Amino acid sequence: MNKIKVIAFDADDTLWVNEPLFQNVEHKFCDMLEDFLPHHSLSKELFSVEIQNLKHYGYGVKGYILSMIEAAITISGRTLSIEAVEKIIALGKEMINAPVELIDGVEDVLKALQGKYRLVVATKGDLLDQERKLIKSGLAKYFHHTEIVSEKNETEYTKLIKHLDIPPSEFLMIGNSLKSDIVPVLNIGAHAFHVPFHTTWEHEKVHHKIEHPKFKELNKINEVLDFVKF
């Protein structure tokens, strides 16, 4: 840990609240279509369409809107009304325009680390949406660099570390997703801290225990300061 020079933070559900927005809209989506299927079946159908569409649309609100419309057309037997499509689009705009709610303690941690480490945002999703949220959050001033990619994997982390001109041993990633923020980072020889969020999208879950000398499991973001050098 004494070698760390760059600390990267995931954005959604690490810096600010995100997944509850999707869950709230999913509930409204299920309410719209409950005449066709029970809620749990509707959620399952929507999730299936989302996963199939990741290769087309990537992550983010816009892809989610398109997946909701596609799922609704299928679920309704192609009887979906124009009014229902408009409601789904409105739900998406509601998500895009929602205020950004910071995770408790995030800004205190960034203030403490600023100037002592190069701080980076490393996130995936829609470029415009993620840039918008970073600006609305008021946190952009703390970061040396922002990296928004379509997928967070070993290749993308290797490219980021090369761009930062450091070896993996000097890089620490902090995030809520074991799949996206932790496993690929450890696999390339860097450090990773997992800070769980109270709810996680099913696609981001890892169902095995991680044991690694460069890995730490934290309870909340403030605990980062207990392990880094000042």
Features:
230 residues; 6 strands; six-stranded parallel beta sheet; 45% helix; elongated; 8 helices; alpha/beta
How are the SSEs ordered, and which strands pair?
Blueprint: E1 6-9, H1 19-32, H2 39-57, H3 61-75, H4 82-96, H5 106-113, E2 118-124, H6 127-137, E3 145-149, H7 154-164, E4 171-175, H8 178-187, E5 191-194, E6 215-217
Parallel strand pairs: 1-2, 1-4, 2-3, 4-5, 5-6
Radius of gyration: 19 Å
Helix count from the secondary structure assignment: 8
Strand content: 5-15%
Order of strands, main sheet, comes to: 3-2-1-4-5-6
Series of secondary-structure elements, N-terminal to C-terminal: EHHHHHEHEHEHEE
Number of strands: 6
Overall helicity: 40-55%
Largest sheet, strands/sense/barrel: 6 strands, parallel
> Which residue ranges are poorly predicted, with pLDDT under 50 across at least 5 consecutive positions?
none
The rounded distance between the terminal residues' Cα atoms is 11 Å
Oligomer kind = single chain
Overall body shape: elongated
Q: Structural class of the secondary elements?
A: alpha/beta
Q: State mean pLDDT (0 to 100 scale).
A: 93
Descriptive overview:
With 230 residues, this protein is α/β, with parallel strands linked by helices. The chain is built from eight helices and six strands; from the N terminus they run E-H-H-H-H-H-E-H-E-H-E-H-E-E. The protein has a six-stranded parallel beta sheet, with helices on both faces. The protein is elongated.
